[in-house]
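Cross-check.
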Amino acid sequence: MTDTPTQPDPKTPVTTPEPSISDQGSWYVVHTYSGHENKVATTLKQRVETMSLQHKIFDIVVPTRNIVTVRHGKKEEIREKIINPPQFLTKKSQPF
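Predicted model, tokenized:
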């Protein structure tokens, strides 16, 4: 038995998978003034849309977590920032 390499069929097109948006880019930290993280992130999202930069900036996230507390016998859900210095994360293709 001989080992012969198999040749691809020339009629079959060879396709390479395109990277998804989640695979593209790197995460960067954006520093802001304390208490302005959500406003700056919302403004940046609007600017990305109006300037058609969706191909460069893929995602903008303010890291938060939901905490359930009980006050006066009622459950309250509070949103708390995870990162202490005022900052948020953005996933983009390259630094500005």
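Strands lie at 26-31, 57-61, 64-71, 74-81, 87-92. The chain has a mean pLDDT of 79. Passed to J.P. for a second look.
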